[in-house]
Amino acid sequence: MDPATAGGFSQEQFREACAELQQPALAGADWQLLVETSGISIYRLLDQQTGLYEYKVFGVLEDCPPAVITDVYMDLDYRKQWDQYVKELYEKECGGQTVVYWEVKYPFPMSNRDYVYIRQQQELDVGGRKIYVVLAQSVSVPQFAERPGVIRVKRYKQSLAIESDGKKGSREWSS
């Protein structure tokens, strides 16, 4: 199922995000460890065709339950309070799907970036474990024309899978 045309994500895409939480897919590619600190590891992979990087983040957030992380991630109004780089961030119904518009402030002389994307969140039961999954991907809709002086990020995608660490915190994977 293509999110850009079908208005959503397939169950297979949600299952793939869960599988990555259990078995990180770093083998077979040139993933580089970028940073490792405070229980968080960040890897990146260069796409030779585009020159863009894909990132993967793995880690444990102690004292932060999965439901709280998911709520913070999904709450656009709250993000506007803590993220100083948000210039504009809102949802709009477009053709039966909820689309997010997000403009990010960049310092001079760089141009701001904007994103137009759909996202969905599900709670899955995988072998008796509750896993929270959020998927997001760029879409092109006529309601959000490109703006002069702002660079549109057209290849945005994110997968986020979070589960309890068995204590008071969370294990998480994001790409």
Automatic annotation (TrEMBL):
It holds the Pfam family START. Keywords: Acetylation, Cytoplasm, Lipid transport, Lipid-binding, Phosphoprotein, Transport. One of its GO terms (cellular component) is cytosol. GO terms for molecular function: phosphatidylcholine binding; phosphatidylcholine transporter activity. It is found in: Cytoplasm. Residues 31-175 form the START domain. InterPro entries: START-like_dom_sf, START_lipid-bd_dom, START_lipid_transfer. Its main location: cytoplasm. Interacts with ACOT13/THEM2. This is Phosphatidylcholine transfer protein. It comes from Phyllostomus discolor (pale spear-nosed bat). The gene is LOC114503258.
